[in-house]
Amino acid sequence: MAKNASGTATVSRPGGRDAAYALTIRSATVTDVPVITEIFNQGVEDKIATFDAAHTVTQRQAWFATHGTTEPVIVTESSGQVVGWASLSQFSQRSCFDLVKELSIYVRREWRNKGVGDVLMADLLQRGAEARLHKVILFVFPSNLRGIALYKKNGFTKVGIFRNHGFRDGEWLDSMAMERIIDSNGR
Ligand SMILES: CC(C)(COP(=O)(O)OP(=O)(O)OC[C@H]1O[C@@H](n2cnc3c(N)ncnc32)[C@H](O)[C@@H]1OP(=O)(O)O)[C@@H](O)C(=O)NCCC(=O)NCCS
């Protein structure tokens, strides 16, 4: 992945599952919050990604304000359209966990399963390494096979499953915890 001086990366995936395309990756700005919210809410609607209900842009603005160099938010664009985003967020307010961050990643519905998640993940882990973070954790529904495949191929391993962990739509659902240490190369 080639990066220019401003930290913008341009990525090509020729010969992928679909026609070749280029993605531009950059840090998110506050003006991206509406599209970040829109893509997050697609994951909520599809019932595959999160226990959360749909967020408002105002809620997401408050979330965005808690992010920075050690809690990056990135977006990836194709032909000027944001097609996915990813973030590292504070995992705990206890200082012993300062260098442990929780990953979120959401790809626009019609762009899923085309390699966008892979591209976001590589850039985010690189930023985590540059910020000298120690570990990234995440929580995923055991039924989210595409997400789990993405995480495994990017070095995450299963920690375990919280049984009956969150209540959604009238039932208790399991949640799988995964983790990976990030070294100085982001891999
Ligand atoms: C999960 C998500 C981020 C993955 O991003 P993506 O761009 O779709 O993923 P990629 O195309 O980079 O990789 C997906 C991998 O899953 C594999 N996959 C797809 N469907 C699968 C299935 N049913 N079972 C197993 N593997 C599957 C693909 O083959 C691919 O692996 P490969 O590159 O080795 O072939 C994206 O699909 C998404 O936003 N989903 C909705 C929101 C969500 O679930 N977020 C994560 C919450 S924990």
Kindly describe this structure.
The chain is an alpha+beta fold and 187 residues long. The protein has one domain (2-137): Aminopeptidase (3-Layer(aba) Sandwich), CATH 3.40.630. It has four helices and nine strands; from the N terminus they run βββααβββαβαββ. It has helices at residues 33-45, 57-65, 116-130, 145-153, and strands spanning 2-3, 9-12, 22-27, 73-78, 81-90, 100-107, 135-140, 157-168, 171-181. It has a nine-stranded mixed beta sheet with strand order 1-2-3-4-5-6-7-9-8. The chain starts with a strand and ends in a 6-residue tail after the last strand. The chain binds coenzyme A. Residues 43, 48-49, 105-107, 112-118, 140, 144-147, 149-150, 153 line the site of coenzyme A (COA).
What is this structure, in a nutshell?
By secondary structure, the chain is α+β, with helices and mostly antiparallel strands. The chain contains 4 helices and 9 strands, in the order βββααβββαβαββ.
Key words describing this protein structure:
4 helices; binds coenzyme A; Aminopeptidase; globular; 187 residues; 9-stranded mixed sheet; alpha+beta
Secondary structure elements and pairings:
Layout: E1 2-3, E2 9-12, E3 22-27, H1 33-45, H2 57-65, E4 73-78, E5 81-90, E6 100-107, H3 116-130, E7 135-140, H4 145-153, E8 157-168, E9 171-181
Helix pairs in contact: 1-2
The structure holds coenzyme A.
Coenzyme A is lined by residues 43, 48-49, 105-107, 112-118, 140, 144-147, 149-150, 153.
